[in-house]
Amino acid sequence: MSWTELVGHEPILERLRHALAIGRLGHAFLFVGESGIGKRRLALELAQGLLCRHRPTRELAPCGTCADCVQVAASTHPDVTQIAKPADKHELPVQLIHGLCGSLGLKAARGGHKIAIVDDADLLTVESSNCFLKTLEEPPPQSVLILLATSLESQLKTIVSRCQVMHFRSLTDAQVVSVLTSLELAPDEDEARRMALWGNGSVGRAIQFSSDEWQLVRRLLHDHLSEKPLPSGTLTREVQQFIDEAGKEAAARRERSRDVIRMAADFYRDCLRYQQAGMVHARDSDRAAVEQAAQLFDAETLLDLMERCLQADFHIGRFLNQSLAVDCWIDDLAQLSAGHYVEPIN
């Protein structure tokens, strides 16, 4: 890993460099932004920068080759603890947080910083969040805690107020292409450009949505969303079947539901772009559906449809009943596309 390889988050890097240079680097950070845009990568590179034995004093300039840099990159460094939601859980258990806080309180094996990285921070329970408070209020010397989240609203205010919040912006298509090609995640630059159109600013989504499985779902979804009236019964069956294929684990089903809803929101956004500028921010296979929907629905209706998608995504993320929420979402899309009023969700 190297700071020079990070794409799209230069302002955040500059803030961190400046804070370290003046001796005011915080002990707790909350990295907020979409999944797949580089939050975890930057957290690991910050750890690498702090632990590198050859970096100049008060500079975030890791060499990338010393034992500390190599171990951080391999996730085997004794002074870096990483946790995430277990595969069989739908939230971060408080036991994991207890262990993490205990680890931060131990003396560093290499005599430098102790660093903890918490992925899936959106899934912290109230009990788990409260467990953090003592560590945040009385941090052990030279400890750094980094929380990775997709939503600021999902965090307790007491957590947010004790962290330095870093907002990560979605990447541009050109930046997604740069990451895909530099990390050899696409066979060539042409395919990277095609993948970037699926990602809507996220490398992770570009990779996920370019799979054969998701391309099929995307075509089915776009075909139905460009119909008037929207065939709610058919769409509900197909979407719920796709969600069922994620398995019985609640978190996987919830995340797949949100991905489908975000894909629908992206579709309506493309329709608005086409209406306003005559441009389709989509691959050729999506173009016909986007143009058809842009002709069927006026701008106000498209905005209402997109807003309903964003509301559904938010509420499913807040642990509203996933299956019921998807059914209601599709029913509301059908009502809105037919020109009927739908009461906003609070």
Helix content: 40-55%
The beta-strand count equals 5
CATH-defined architecture of the largest domain? 3-Layer(aba) Sandwich
CATH superfamily of the largest domain: P-loop containing nucleotide triphosphate hydrolases
Q: How many domains in all? A: 2
Largest beta sheet, briefly?
Answer: 5 strands, parallel
Which CATH first-tier class of the largest domain would you pick?
Answer: Alpha Beta
Low-pLDDT segments, ≥5 res = none
**Rounded radius of gyration (Å):** 22 Å
Question: How does the helix and strand content classify structurally?
Answer: alpha/beta
Order of helices and strands: HEHHEHEHEHEHHHHHHHHH
Overall pLDDT: 89
Q: Number of helical segments?
A: 15
Q: Which features characterize this protein?
A:
346 residues, alpha/beta, Rossmann fold, Zinc Finger, Delta Prime, domain 3, 2 domains, 15 helices, 5 strands, 7% strand, globular, P-loop_NTPase, transferase, DNA-directed DNA polymerase activity
Structure commentary:
This protein has 346 residues and is α/β, with parallel strands linked by helices. The protein has 2 domains: 9-167, P-loop containing nucleotide triphosphate hydrolases (Rossmann fold); 211-338, Zinc Finger, Delta Prime, domain 3, CATH 1.20.272. The chain has helices at 10-21, 39-51, 67-73, 94-104, 126-137, 157-160, 173-182, 189-199, 203-209, 212-225, 232-244, 250-277, 284-296, 299-317, 322-337; strands spanning 28-32, 80-83, 114-118, 143-149, 164-167. Strands 2-3-4-1-5 form a 5-stranded parallel β-sheet, sandwiched between helices. α5 (126-137) links the parallel β3 (114-118) and β4 (143-149). This is DNA polymerase III subunit tau.
